[in-house]
Specification:
Layout (H helix, E strand, L loop, with lengths): L1 H14 L2 H6 L4 E2 L10 H8 L4 E2 L5 H7 L3 E10 L5 E2 L4 E2 L1 E10 L11 E5 L18 H7 L3 E4 L24 H20 L4 E6 L1 H12 L7 E7 L14 H18 L22 H14 L9 H8 L8 H16 L13
Parallel strand pairs: 7-8, 7-9, 9-10
Antiparallel strand pairs: 1-2, 3-6, 4-5, 6-8
Helix pairs in contact: 1-8, 6-7, 8-11
Length: 353
């Protein structure tokens, strides 16, 4: 059963973006308001020339609709261990847009505790505000007196998806680059902006993976985080009852190898490119809604707490919104290794004491 369900699931996911690719569909270019971006004249037009909006509300737009203060900032991020070779140039850095959320009655307060929220794979800063002020963590933290910052990783619409869509080498990244380069750049920027020595960190799913990659490799950042809270952390792939069933892992690798072979745009283990079909949220459309619900249930959980159809539909309006093929391949390679050596355990009670 798993084999049949997930063959259909992944094939359809990969086909979600084929219409846009074939027809060359383009969206409206949108950039932040001039008075909200520091250094606008110098960097904004270079950093964010191609954020595409096709009925998609930006993170700051969602925040403002709820009556809260929203600010947009451009953060310079290192390209990685080596410069990225683009088609006509080479870059050693690029820009990611992040957002700040403040309660309107508390926007003038100083020395508020600072908290950074980081999203999951194929997500964005909107993941923490899409449900509105009644059902979103970002708003609840602002109400509680926090200076809330909503970060983004490379690969989504705020981190190069549209600007570098056709530059193969840009997409040679995974959660290692998220943790070693994207995350520390944003932490340093926020601490400098707020003049605070430390911040609180909340990471959801891959946001947890990236945090552990950072804190175990650049240990000085442990001193910059007051407390870390992780939601559905993806760290130990062999102790979850919902993570990468063996049948899915085997099929995913089989499919990925076929796709890489046919496209001839690949490295040894992965295809260098953005995830097809994840360039614009499609799950809110009638033709994909039930299919996406099946995928959500199969890949995460069918617990009753996830069956809030209204909230789920709001989530579908902002995600999925971009990531690299290598990121998923990296996760699945780890799971495949564990499975091959008999270390894949799907019993939650197997967590080490």
């Amino acid at each position: 059963m798993w084999d049949s369900v997930f063959k259909i699931y992944f094939i359809l996911i990969l086909s979600l973006g084929l219409t846009d690719i074939i027809c060359g569909k383009k969206g409206k270019k949108v950039v932040p308001a001039k008075d909200e971006v520091k250094g606008w004249d110098k960097v904004a037009k270079v950093a964010l020339p191609n954020i595409v909006q096709s009925g998609l509300k930006r993170t700051d737009e969602i925040i403002k609709l709820e009556g809260y203060e929203a600010y947009s900032y451009i953060v310079k991020v290192s390209a990685g261990r080596e410069p990225i070779k683009l088609e006509n140039s080479t870059i050693d850095s690029f820009y990611i847009e992040i957002f700040r959320l403040r309660h309107p009655a508390k926007k003038e307060m100083k020395n508020m505790p600072v908290v950074l929220l980081m999203h999951a794979c194929t997500g964005s800063s909107s993941d923490f505000v899409f449900g509105g002020k009644e059902e979103s963590l970002g708003f609840h933290l602002a109400d509680a007196g926090y200076d809330v910052w909503l970060g983004n990783f490379r690969g989504n619409i705020y981190g190069g998806l549209n600007q570098y869509r056709n530059d193969t080498e840009f997409w040679d990244f995974s959660f290692d680059e998220h943790g070693l380069f994207d995350l520390p750049a944003q932490i340093d920027y926020i601490l400098k902006k707020t003049k605070q020595p430390k911040l609180y960190y909340i990471g959801f799913s891959m946001g947890a993976t990236a945090a552990y990659a950072l804190l175990s490799s650049k240990t000085e950042y442990n001193e910059k985080i007051e407390r870390m809270v992780l939601l559905s952390p993806v760290v130990y792939l062999n102790i979850s009852d919902i993570t990468f069933p063996p049948e899915v892992t085997k099929f995913f690798h089989s499919l990925s190898n076929k796709v890489a072979h046919e496209t001839e745009v690949h490295d040894f283990f992965y295809w260098k490119g953005p995830l097809m079909g994840f360039d614009n949220p499609k799950c809110s459309t009638e033709e994909f809604k039930s299919f996406c619900a099946l995928g959500m249930k199969s890949l995460s959980s069918d617990h009753k707490s996830l069956l809030n159809s209204e909230l789920r539909n709001k989530f579908y309006s902002v995600a999925p919104i971009g990531s690299s093929y290598k990121t998923l391949s990296h996760y699945s390679n780890i799971a495949k290794f564990l499975y091959m050596f008999g270390l894949f355990n799907t019993k939650m009670n197997s967590i080490p004491k």
